[in-house]
Specification:
The protein is mostly helical. The protein has a single domain (42-328), classed as Orthogonal Bundle (Hypothetical protein af1432). It is built from 17 helices and no strands. Helix 5 (97-106) packs across helix 9 and helix 9 crosses helix 12. The protein is flat and about 65 Å long.
């Protein structure tokens, strides 16, 4: 019996009857031989962790565009916090930690430079529209590894695609990541907004603090405990009505005070114009795309406008600015 098979047996004996067992996965888009050491979801986690799109998250905006200071969240640190929340919940409920970690690490791979400003920019100019969750799935299915994709399991792909509020993942592990994403960004964005002096802890309505807690640490602890307590032994991931309603109201509070705050979003219009200008340029000059993207058009038959979106969405903030300067800003003459 291989190490993988022993680990699969351990899952069968120890994990909850509602857990997604590795040996019961619906499989991959392209069938391949199993690893003799790692179960399928652990293998998916490793593939995501080692891919280029994951590494680029460290230079992509979370909320604040090009902030001054080393302690603001990036898309990468957000992803790691989502993963930690999800693993804590999954472990307490005896669900599959490898699966939640794979979904969590991959859920935002499709995010654009400049956060939701970049997403909005591409959605406005691309004929087929643009949504980061759909793009995240496209990256793992097609864009990564020079157009070959990562060939992930059905369960990981489902969790990545359905991690947004309107999504409905088919596994409890996917549902955990869907909640963990909100838990992470609401709480760490409060922390960043306080750091940016856009918000004070005292600004949060008292009745919300009474339910959720009086600090980021308290809120995370209370929400995660509430999910675990209310979901234990059930084929569902749920919160108590009081905590769920308070979290929804806190999210609405953040939209009004931070996410739509002109001081935090003052540079967004510039980012939107920059991204759209890059899109229009590369749509007319697809011959200037990197070779792997040109091959997606010439060899794989992908639509030009979709491949241009792939290229621009994959850019980091700094790289997008550098390409814009290279293409549109006159450089000094050197004699």
């Amino acid at each position: 019996m291989s190490i993988r098979e022993k680990l699969e047996d351990w899952e069968s004996q120890y994990l909850s009857p509602y857990a997604s067992l590795s040996k019961n996965s619906k499989g991959r888009l392209v069938e391949e031989e199993d690893c003799d050491i790692r179960p399928v979801y652990q293998r998916d986690r490793d593939r995501i962790l080692h891919c280029k799109s994951f590494r680029r998250l460290k230079h992509k905006t979370q909320v604040f565009l090009t902030p001054e200071g080393d302690h603001y969240r990036t898309r990468l640190t957000h992803t790691l916090e989502v993963s930690q929340n999800a693993r804590t919940i999954a472990k307490a409920l005896r669900l599959n930690e490898d699966l939640v970690e794979a979904i969590a690490l991959g859920h935002d791979l499709g995010h654009t430079p400049f956060g939701h400003a970049g997403e909005k920019a591409l959605n406005e100019v691309c004929p087929d529209g643009f949504a980061h969750n759909i793009q995240s799935l496209r990256i793992v299915d097609l864009v990564e590894k020079g157009g070959k994709g990562l060939n992930l399991t059905y369960e990981v792909r489902d969790g990545i695609l359905n991690h947004q509020t309107k999504g409905n993942p088919n596994t409890l592990e996917g549902k955990i990541v869907r909640w963990s994403d909100k838990i992470a960004y609401i709480n760490h964005d409060i922390d960043d907004a306080i750091r940016a002096k856009l918000l004070r802890e005292d600004d949060i309505p008292e009745y919300l603090k009474e339910v959720l807690g009086y600090s980021t640490r308290e809120r995370l602890d209370r929400i995660i405990h509430d999910i675990v307590t209310n979901s234990e032994g059930k084929n569902a991931i749920i919160m108590s009505p009081d905590v769920e309603n308070a979290m929804k109201e806190l999210r609405a509070f953040m939209f009004s005070r931070v996410y739509k705050n002109p001081k935090a979003k003052g540079e967004e219009i510039k980012a939107i114009r920059l991204v759209q200008q890059l899109y229009r340029y590369y749509q007319k000059h697809t011959n200037e795309l990197p070779l792997e993207y040109q091959n997606m058009i010439a060899v794989s038959g992908e639509k030009e406008e979709r491949v241009v979106c792939d290229y621009i969405a994959g850019m980091t903030d700094q790289y997008a600015i550098a390409k814009f300067e290279e293409l549109f800003i006159p450089s000094a003459w050197h004699i």
